[in-house]
Task: structure prediction
Amino acid sequence: MNRKKGMAALLMSVALSGSVLTACSSNSDSASSSEEGGKVEEIVFAMPSFNRIPDDLSKVTDAINAITVDKIGVKVDFRVYGPADYTQKVNLALQSGEKMDIFTTLGQFSNYVSKNQVAPLDDLIAKDGKEMTAILEKDFGPDLLKATTINGHIYGIPVNKGMALPTSFVYNADMLKAAGLSSDNIKTVDDLSAIFEAVKKSNSDVVPFGPINVNPSDTNLVNLLKGTNKIDFLTDTSGVGVVIGGDGKVVNFYESDIFKNGVKMMRDWYSKGYLQKDAATTTITSMEMLSSGREFSFLGGYSGMEIGKTISAQSGKNVESKRIAPFYFDTIAANGVSWMVSSTSKAPAAAVKFLNLLYTDVDLINTLLYGIEGEDYVKVDEHHVKFPEGKDANTVAYTAMFSTGIVGSESLQYQFEGVNWSDVELKLKENKETERSPYFGFIFDQSKVKTQISAVNNVVNQYLPGLVTGSLDPETTIPKFVKALNDAGAADVIKSKQDQLDQWIASQGN
Amino acid sequence: MRNANGTSNALRKTGPLLMLAAPGLLYFLINSYIPMFGVFIAFKDINYAKGIFGSDWLGFDNFQFLFKTTDAWIMTRNTLLYNLAFIVIGTICSIFIAILMSELLKKLYAKLYLSGLVLPSLISMVVLSMLVFAFLNSDSGFVNNSILKPLGLPEINWYSEAKYWPYLLVIIQMWKTAGYGSIVYFSSIAGIDKSIYEAAKIDGAGKLRQIRTITLPLLKPTVIVLGLMSIGRIFNSDFGLFYQVPLNAGALYSTTQTIDTYVYRALMQLNDIGMSAAAGLYQSLVGLVLVLVVNSIVKRVNSENALF
Result:
């Protein structure tokens, strides 16, 4: 009996180890065969999409490969992730050593560089990226790659689009009309209070103003102040350590009178009932509020003049926009979305060849954005596309139409039907004409003060949403806020920034 | 020869039990023991070009950020006090439910009620946070509109007043977990020899007396084991409860910030795995020390009830 059992166990284990062995051998087989395939190199390319993520990417991937294998001999493993998990997926792949060659950042460029997660690209760009450099120069200006240069090396390619995002007042035009006013009454931010009052009077159910982003709530106040007062955040979004008006002195933004006055204005709006009582913690975005007709307006940073039309189409309301503050180029405005090549990439040259195509090839760019012509979109004219008859963004097999600000060169992208082509030209013009900070190109290296930065971020998260929505009283809260920041080590961050900035300025002089 | 026979005998006896334990052991091996190799990451300055093993050693620098701020005290206090409250109140509630259920004469009802009480623990924290929001939001919430208003009381802005949240969080946690926690107690009560109760009845002991002198003392080992296990996790907190349910509201940080939420908020932008590993190591170490201390106290008082 016992012996029989032992035999069975032995047999089992032999069978098991056998299958393991065969698994190994079959693995090594496939690996060697792909190597033998030779010239075509394979890279992994991950793109964020703000549309529904399609279940089946094989068709689009084939279409992309048809272009890339033919032109540059590179086969692309195409991945698409939603905005919520994009960063996480990419970081996970990088940390676990999974293959990930080309990815973008949603605002953390210098972080990837300081941890050596991305490869320097200078030599490769000089060799395989000439067309890309040319189009960046044509659409933005010669200094764009400065925004992604650290210690003399280029680590990323900023997306080539309208990068000036002046603060616009976005509002429901019908409600404004009902209140007996017109867009001529809106010129600066100071006019808004009176407009809210009128809207509130004519329609008491409507919330006059709301935060554009929620959790944490953000009313775009900080960007408004940044543009109007020429403040450079020095590539760190925490706001501790900024230069105001280009005087070279790094200060704490939250201690400045500019911040104080801005927050006081919000407090005034809040106490007059222009914002919801729970504006600081609401989970409903202004977009949803606007679409349901419960909100009148919000502030947002947009390039071009067509944003009213886009939002009208999305919300089903008659929405218009009006610029109320200029934009100010600091480094982070340009490198906020940059494409990078992983430092562990086995084929960096192939990756740069692909990037070169990503910025210059009309077919590739529009396949990535709109899918396959005739199935996922149809062309209307030279610059415009629309969905095939009877289809929309949710029913076509593939579309990533909301990723236009992420992929390649905007001047080569098709626009959706109804969008004015002259707007693209305007964006490119503003790229060149918007005032640049004298520290454009300076990138702060956080690694020496990361303990302090993490502590400071926590304090900012705690107080800022309440202040920019007016829910907290600035008179009592700002002193507490500033004290907490100082306890968290704000002074170290400011000093470290000042040192690095002084060095950077000195090095620019040469 | 005799020895070999001995081991095979032992194996035959314990084999089935080992098989039963195998999935659990595997779970701990994969999720707890293998990742332990990563502990050294907490002492490294991770540099991806050099790789995990090649990165420079940092000493204790990665741990600094946990203690750098005045928040350090607040978050440690919150984590400890909330978990203590959850353990104490949770045990009381669970035992209370278990006793009530076991006193039901019709077993069908007992099953029905117990299932109803277990249901909340299946709800995800995100959904729960929306349920809570429906009760508490300041514009259309149930509490403000349907309870406080009719009573003529002033409305409360729940998501900006930190002082209510210790109570709210305890109530929410109990609603969610007490039913589930009572299952173990319910089954230990079912395992108590019925003849003891019969003897007590003959001696003239009422229901309350029976509960006090029979049920509760016999539940003591279960309480101690479960208590010890939760004390091991006293430095960890339910992230969903402390992050999702208060809707990440800054004004509530003074009573909702725990070590886990602090680490998450502080490192979201830095994305530094060295610092995250440091935080995790710190929590586990303190947990281990607490288990050892509590176990040795239990051992001194009553060595039979100690875990090891």
User: Anything to note?
Assistant: Chain B has a mean pLDDT of 86. The first helix of chain B runs from residue 2 to 33. The two ends of chain B are 33 Å apart (CA to CA). Residues 117 and 175 of chain B are 8 Å apart (CA to CA).
